From TrEMBL, chains A, B:
Chief location of this protein within or outside the cell: cytoplasm
Signal peptide positions on this chain: none
Name assigned to this protein: Redox-sensing transcriptional repressor Rex
InterPro entries xrefs: CoA-bd, NAD(P)-bd_dom_sf, Rex_actinobacterial-type, Rex_DNA-bd_C_dom, Tscrpt_rep_Rex, WH-like_DNA-bd_sf, WH_DNA-bd_sf
Subunit and partners: Homodimer.
Species lineage: Bacteria, Bacillati, Bacillota, Clostridia, Halanaerobiales
Organism: Orenia metallireducens
Amino acid sequence: MIHKEGKTIVIPTAVIKRLPKYHRHLGKLLKKGVEKISSREFGEIVGVSAPQLRQDLNHFGNFGQQGYGYNVEKLYNALAKVMGIEKKSNMVLVGVGNLGQALISATDFKRRGFNLLTAFDINPRLVGMTINGIKVRDIINLDQYVKDNDINIGIIAVPEESAQDVANQLVSAGVKGIWNFAPVDLKVPKEISVENEHLTEGLLRLSFKIKGEM
Amino acid sequence: MIHKEGKTIVIPTAVIKRLPKYHRHLGKLLKKGVEKISSREFGEIVGVSAPQLRQDLNHFGNFGQQGYGYNVEKLYNALAKVMGIEKKSNMVLVGVGNLGQALISATDFKRRGFNLLTAFDINPRLVGMTINGIKVRDIINLDQYVKDNDINIGIIAVPEESAQDVANQLVSAGVKGIWNFAPVDLKVPKEISVENEHLTEGLLRLSFKIKGEM
DNA sequence: TAGATTGTTAATCGATTAACAATC
DNA sequence: TAGATTGTTAATCGATTAACAATC
């Protein structure tokens, strides 16, 4: 959903899915020092047709210029704004197992404007530890912490069995979105956004594609 | 691509994307002891309309029975076969950083029929170690190992800068598919399948959805 | 200005849903 | 048999591509 000239326009989900990729490649072009790029060239890089790229972008504004193309920096910043990155999001992580620890150490999110403030776990052996500058707290403090620290994203990296329970806690504490790594389809109120990273599903799709070739 | 009654049929990508989810929920139902299920009930569980579910399944065969529904176990096994799980896939992991270690410890894949045989890294401090029963080898041995051990999937969990190089090595060693966790769009020959887990893109989509609500 | 490339409308393609005859 | 539910065709909806006038 977006507001444009007073009207409320719904952005097609297919478009939303492609935006992060556009943003990532624009970042790379920027780093390389590329100043401008045409929809044809950029489409080739991101694997999308030129008209589709133009249509996608025009959902959010007219960022290009006829006869010239798109200014890389301007487009990069415009997309960042569209995706809400310019205003940093505070996050907490729940579940400090192997995957949780990997997420704590990931540098990619910070670069893109996401702040991981702290982590929670139920395991007393982990509680109190500091990993990569991130303190691990007891999960009984989750509710209070989320309320006190303007947290809007909760990351779930707990086992399957407890994922729904953790989601409930995050929601009632007031997060706006959940980034879920447990292989579960969470039930949440419809005003809460969920993005799933069901890794095994990717592996199964890969398997399907491989077998299809044989 | 699939062969049915002599004809070669292309399966819509939208269908392929949904199959792993179907399979996962069938597994849960099976565990719960559910014997049969109608397309209406199952569609509700997986978040898909009943006719769509029936259409999806009918790309691969007629698994249901009028007036009865679908036998859960039969459908579960049928989908496993469709996705090529019944014949186990051998995998190697490249990159034993935080994420790589998390992948080594993940139990989910093994359950679904994937064998991780070994891991490779360039870091001498890691080479020789054994993590969760998985030996870490020097990456110079990658080519030989893949050739000798009937490996068909390579997992890439190395930093962005070396991902393409690792992909090239995996391809020339003979893998059929790559499961890629580096935030890069790999260039590979078209007969090689790639499945990307670009985690940060999920987070950006989540951010977009959240800001859209506000 | 002429050439290039956008923004946007119309045409096509693919995916989803509706409807219902077939059949267990 | 009657009721339920599939498999499948036709209708609708959404997403992609083609085409071109607008314009830098």
